[in-house]
Amino acid sequence: MLPIHFKDIQAATRACSVLRTLTGYISRGWPPSRKAIVNSEVGQFYDQCGGLMIIQDCIFLGDRLVIPMVFRRRILEELHRGYPGIVRMKMLARSKVFWPKIDKNIEEAVKACENYARAGSSPIKCSPQPWPIPKGPWSHIHVDYAGPVNGFYYFVIVDAYSKWPEIFKTTTITAAKTVEFLLEVFSRYGLCDTIVNDNGPQFISQEFTTFCKTNGIEHFLTAPYHPQLNGQAEKFVDLLKTGLKKVDGNTDEKLRNFLTCYRFTPSYGLGMKTPSELMNSRAMKTRLDLLKPTVATSRSRSQQFNTAAGARLREFQCGTAVYYKFRKSNNTWNWIPTMALRRIGTVNYRVKLSAPDRIVKAHANQLKFRHQSNELFDAFGLYDVSENEVEPTIIPQAQQCDDSNQQGGDHNDLRESSVHEAVRSDSPEVGRNPTTSKSPDAAQLAPRRTTRINAGVLQPAMGSNLKRKGMW
């Protein structure tokens, strides 16, 4: 696409009914109030009336050239070349060009850029959504495998209500071995209602699925590569690995000592009770049973999940265009466009992938909103302007609030929209002088700049992050 030259801006300014009306106000004077301006699009320039000037049939706001409507889309594309981001794109625009609502248009252009969204960072994480607190012990359990540690794997079971752990040491992690461990622990405590685990091959096998259905157990699988949903088991796996390193002795002795300490130690998250008290409804005897634990004020169980300050709940409706954080085979991540099909629970969704063609479960932290490209053009209400269009011919007409332009060739008449609300745009800022040969010189701009300063126009304040050493 060819660049836009100053002559193109001159011709478009003469052809634009809004800028023609604006030129008349600049030359003859402005009304005493905004309400006296019939055309709402012209009224958007009222707050900058003291800084507007006409130079070589073009309108300037200080050093910034006022861009006609037909070229604003191409100017945005030029500003977005190189993907500078929203903040730097605004800084570049404020030194060169101006039109009402330019900051809003820049934000919409960046959000609608698919390449920018693919390479962008993850959105703010959702607020932690805890599992419902079980009514009693051994109703809701979390399972996972830890290891290998010193050549062994450890099958970990954690009760969600009491935090009571069960650990089995093994050298194989097949589905048959997993079912064997569960049958052994069920023989002591009975069947549970719910099992939560990750997407390990032994948990998604047909054998394990059949075992859960046969015993009336509700089986929940977490979203792939999002272990936070199985946080009970994941946290205990970390504690187990750390505990085995701290305790002396052989492997079996280390495991017994670790379980004894964990099961009989009061926990602040359990209201200063031990897992054994909640699991067995009694205080089990130890060598420290003569000591009385310090009575502390217990807090609500729900407060233990309120750990992510500044997080917020993010919801997606069915059919919403989103980006999904997809994991490639080379262990890299990429944001791919997709659509949320339906919601599962509080923070899980079903999304459809095109390559490979399948439907997967995704956590809300793995999704972010996808802004469609046509949202930017709808916001402008623009039509594409061909580079080879002939210069429009101006036909004198009666002055009305809705002036129209006629263009040559095979193009139909296009009537400019005047339905935008008049809003106060950003304060004008003085940037660097244009370097082109046809830019206004300092003598022409000096009186107007002095007028703008006296009118109370402030220079842009430099943020604290720009003052740090080595930032720019």
Automatic annotation (TrEMBL):
Listed Polar residues bias regions: 400-409
Domain Integrase catalytic: 133-301
Leader sequence residues: none
Enzyme class: transferase
One GO process term, biological-process aspect: DNA integration
UniProt EC number: 2.7.7.49
Region (Disordered): 400-472
Record-level Gene Ontology MF annotations: nucleic acid binding; RNA-directed DNA polymerase activity
A Pfam family: rve
Compositional bias per record (Basic and acidic residues), positions renumbered to this chain: 410-429
Organism domain of life: Eukaryota
PANTHER family: PROTEIN CBG26694, PROTEIN NYNRIN-LIKE
Name listed for the protein in its UniProt record: RNA-directed DNA polymerase
Annotated source species: Ooceraea biroi (Clonal raider ant)
